[in-house]
Amino acid sequence: MVTMGLKGAAGYLNCHPETVRSLVLSDKLKGVKVGRAWVFKESDLSKYLDDLYHEGSNAKELSQWNYSKDQTRRTGNSASRPRSENKYSDLLKKPIKRKPE
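The structure assignment produced for this chain is given below.
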């Protein structure tokens, strides 16, 4: 049986140690705490990865970063303005009705 600590498990899963800890606390990954140290079996980590592939949850998480051609708003350093800002600009363009003097 091959075991590893928190940092080793994080390296195996290619994620941050805090992510591994939160997966254990949410019962998504098996691990035990012996004294102050976390201990993980390599077979449990492999099973977790296999389950991700079979559930398709990995593809679901990645789909939020995929953009379709129909999508006009993007995040990050995009040049397009958010919809709320576009609506505000449209309201400012409307002519103002003045009262007759």
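Interim note for the steering committee: The helical segments are 6-13, 17-25, 42-55, 57-63, 83-93. The beta strands are 3-4, 32-34, 37-41.
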